[in-house]
Amino acid sequence: xxxxxxxxxxxxxxxxxxxxxxxxxxxxxxxxxxxxxxxxxxxxxxxxxxxxxxxxxxxxxxxxxxxxxxxxxxxxxxxxxxxxxxxxxxxxxxxxxxxxxxxxxxxxxxxxxxxxxxxxxxxxxxxxxxxxxxxxxxxxxxxxxxxxxxxxxxxxxxxxxxxxxxxxxxxxxxxxxxxxxxxxxxxxxxxxxxxxxxxxxxxxxxxxxxxxxxxxxxxxxxxxxxxxxxxxxxxxxxxxxxxxxxxxxxxxxxxxxxxxxxxxxxxxxxxxxxxxxxxxxxxxxxxxxxxxxxxxxxxxxxxxxxxxxxxxxxxxxxxxxxxxxxxxxxxxxxxxxxxxxxxxxxxxxxxxxxxxxxxxxxxxxxxxxxxxxxxxxxxxxxxxxxxxxxxxxxxxxxxxxxxxxxxxxxxxxxxxxxxxxxxxxxxxxxxxxxxxxxxxxxxxxxxxxxxxxxxxxxxxxxxxxxxxx
Length: 469
Fold this sequence. Notes:
Strand content: 15-25%
EC number: 3.4.11.21
Number of domains: 2
Subunit structure: Tetrahedron-shaped homododecamer built from six homodimers.
CATH superfamily of the largest domain: Zn peptidases
GO molecular function: aminopeptidase activity; metallopeptidase activity; zinc ion binding
């Protein structure tokens, strides 16, 4: 499948719009929902019975941060297989502590926790904001409200080189002491709202109300954005995010400079591929159910009610298998196939020695298939061969990646899901640089190449599976 430069840029710019609207997992799910609803999908609830029929297109969410969507093939019957793409909605970031009010040396600051394995020095000297969800009380109801403060309100300033002469050689910030963003000065805060200065370096009083756990200016900002009173704010989950938008870069407009490429690129491409694969008559002839499963909490191990290690995916697949024989679910599993999609490490031009010599993947060269003999990735010779055949049919380029034997290997939801369900699984990812930095880098080609591969998977997997001996 060939792509023009214009087509590549159009797809990349559409992805940038998605990223810029998705500063937290809650916003990611909201944007995915919008894409699905515009493509004719309807929302289901876990708490209600389902009546699923061929050609139905549906989705459900859990915790507002995980979403599973599916399209039922026209020839599906219980016991048939599932064609699944899995990705995740979260990225390494800083999250506001439950009691974040911190006062130091005349500054009002916001206490944060480190979420995931971020490159934390990249968060210094960035124009930061807050995004996530706030739980509010409206009468007798608790409501989930999205928050995105679209201006820079926080900063983590570096120590100047004059006070740390070996800064360039030994800078290693203490994550508890040095990674605290500044919100305001105490002097200006007092002039602004007339509140008294806090006594001592930290306010250590026994705080009873949610609003008293955080800086008054922060509480006011949140309440003003949501048009609520402070006593209506029950709790929140807020991420720090860079206010600089994602952008096309490079002298040839060939790069994407963006936050959260890991793993919003695959979440977005899986969503668009599912929606586009339902156009035309292809779905009507499909014996399988096509699914995307976008989980939260992958960056911290997936062990949560909304993570890939939960029972969520299994419960959904069991419900979709209902109505057949008593073993319909068990019959479906060996007919199914899962693509675990998470970003991959492109060869770094300044550190080429960090990459295995025969597996240096490059930008613009296609999605990479990930292999690891120690099962950090779930790829097998069989699952790789199936995807190669699918890619061949649509001329989608593929690469292969293996880490060096003397290097640690990250992992994905692939081994988790394949072990829990026994579904044949492959790990893949588009190549990128600066993974887990606040600003990451990939190529514009990756968006279209990944979407095309995923769409080809949905359309061709059943016939490829049927051809296996």
